[in-house]
Amino acid sequence: MFTLPKLNYGYDALEPFIDKETMEIHYSKHHQTYTDNFNKALTDFPEIQQMELVEIFRNLNSLNVPEATKTAIKNHGGGYINHKIYWESLAPQKEENTDLAREIIRTFSSLDEFKKLFSDLALKQFGSGWAWLVRTPEGKLKMYSLPNQDSPYTLGDTPIFNLDVWEHAYYLKYQNRRAEHIENWWNVLKFF
Ligand code: MN3
Question: Would you say residue 184 has pLDDT above 90?
Fold first, then answer.
């Protein structure tokens, strides 16, 4: 069974950029519900429960399960793994001089240019979804947004970090101001 991953910082650690109440509800309610429903979807499929989490999503389209179960894994399991990546990408204190920052500058010409492009993707994702920085099978950095709880693993890519633009990620503090949520989120992304 999959369990709610441990959070490495307190609910208030990302204040004022991500508020305590949003963190608590996002983690203990939303992520817990994805976790519970993911496990529920796998109840009758012990062979999938035994798989590595990442392998489930890399092989989602070829899993030997009914279509409804595949959809439940994609949605609830997607919510499970996507939030796991999200919490791991955030920190109250930034890591300095990371290899990733250097690679982003090589690929996108500057951190500012990268941030502008990434923010724009996140802002323009229609409805619920995520913005992603991923590594392609060829080893290149790439960014895109995906709807709902779709996983880059299913597209063959490996996620590096993501930004949640579901309303539940920001509505309590920012209401409809998604752009402000995105701008403030950069302050708590741990990599640079
Ligand atoms: Mn979320």
Answer: yes
For domain 98-185, say whether CATH 3.30.300.30 is its number: no
CATH superfamily of 20-88: Fe,Mn superoxide dismutase (SOD) domain (1.10.287.990)
The residue with tokens 């590594």 is: 135
Contact in structure between 183 and 18 (CB atoms under 8 Å) = no
Rounded to whole angstroms, the Cα distance separating 33 from 101 reads 34
For ligand 1, the distance from its centroid to the CA atom of residue 144, given in whole angstroms, is 17
Strand partners, 132: 144, 162
Measure 4 CA to ligand 1 centroid, in angstroms: 13
What is the rounded average pLDDT of the residues 56-81? 98
CA neighbor of 27 nearest in space, from 78, 74, 79, 73: 79
Tally the C-alpha atoms within 13 A of residue 10's C-alpha that lie toward its C-beta.
Answer: 5
